[in-house]
Every structure is written in structure tokens, then in C-alpha cells.
Specification:
Rossmann fold, 6 strands
Length: 179
């Protein structure tokens, strides 16, 4: 199974009230990040069969915006196992329910999404340190009980790649004369 791990994009400052924080939306930077990340994933031919998100607003917005860029037509699934305080065994059970899919995208929060990515990558008793920035994406391929990180990028990297591709496309435009 291919798993695309996505941390929700920028959503401003944490709100002290847990109820209000659950409803905190993406900010303007977060919305822009989703566009760059979604277009980068589309260019890399990422095709998740299902997108599963934490039920918190900033995660569902991230999942929806990236899904739109990918042309995803399925229904967004909400899963408590992707909440910020979720436990790894719950995440594992969620993945087991998705075993019929070849490619799954999961959208969550720190600290849980970083922990899940690290724990799926390393053997028990080992540790992986991952700087999982807001809006970042990791592609992991799992086979039985082994996992391989294929690639990882941040929104800043996606933006730079998009800018370079746009500049290259403009330079390759044929010059025409006005005679």
C-alpha cells in the first residue's frame, strides 16, 4: 500500500479553547500551501483511492483543497484516529480497514502524524526524527510489515519547484517576429 502522509497546512495560532481550536480554519498562507502541494502531487501523478482526514476543520480543509487539485472525486472520510492526540494502535487499525486500497492519503496533525510516520518507518526500539512542517507530504510504500520512504517535501519546496517549472516554460516559448 502507498500511504501519503500529509500534515495540515498553516492555520495561524493555536486557540486556548479546545472546542474553538477544533474549528480553527486554514489561514491565507495555508490555503496557498494547499494549492502548491496539490499541484506538485498532481504533477507527480499521486492518485489516492481514498482521502482520510482528521475531523478538525484545518485538516478537512487541507484534505479537500489538495483533493481538488488532484481531481479526487471520492467522499472525504473523517477519522478520529488522525486527531492530534490519537494513539498509534488506532492509526494501525484504521490502516487495516483500508487494506483493500493501493493508495491512501491521510491528513492529520502534530504530534500524532509525525509519530505515525516515524513508527511506520522504523523497527520497534528504534527512533526516527522527522521535521514534519505544516503542509508537508511524505510518500511511504508498505509491504507486509516493512515500509520505505519514497519521498518527502514541504510546501516551500513545492512552491520553488512550481516557480522553476513556470520560469522554464516561459523561457521555452518560441520567439515570434512581428513582421
Amino acid at each position: 500500500m502507498i500511504i501519503y502522509f500529509v500534515r495540515h497546512a498553516s492555520a495561524g495560532q493555536h486557540v486556548p479553547s479546545p472546542k474553538k481550536d477544533e474549528k480553527r480554519p486554514l489561514d491565507a498562507d495555508g490555503i496557498e500551501q494547499c494549492g502548491f502541494v496539490g499541484r506538485a502531487l498532481a504533477a507527480m501523478n499521486a492518485q489516492p483511492e481514498v482521502i482520510i482526514s482528521s475531523p478538525l476543520k484545518r485538516a478537512t480543509q487541507t484534505a479537500s483543497l489538495i483533493g481538488n487539485e488532484l481531481g479526487y472525486e471520492g467522499k472525504l472520510q473523517l477519522e478520529p484516529a488522525l486527531r492530534p492526540d490519537a494513539a498509534f494502535p488506532d492509526f494501525r487499525r484504521m490502516l487495516e480497514k483500508c487494506s483493500r486500497y493501493e493508495a491512501v492519503m491521510v491528513v492529520g496533525h502534530n504530534p500524532s502524524i509525525t509519530e505515525f510516520l516515524a513508527r511506520i518507518m522504523v523497527k520497534p526500539g528504534s527512533e526516527a526524527l522527522i521535521d514534519f512542517k505544516k503542509g508537508a507530504v511524505a510518500r511511504v510504500e508498505t509491504v507486509r510489515h516493512a515500509a520505505r520512504l519514497n519521498w518527502f517535501f514541504t510546501p516551500k519546496m513545492a512552491r520553488a519547484i512550481h516557480a522553476a517549472a513556470t520560469t522554464a516554460a516561459e523561457k521555452s516559448q518560441p520567439k515570434t517576429s512581428r513582421k
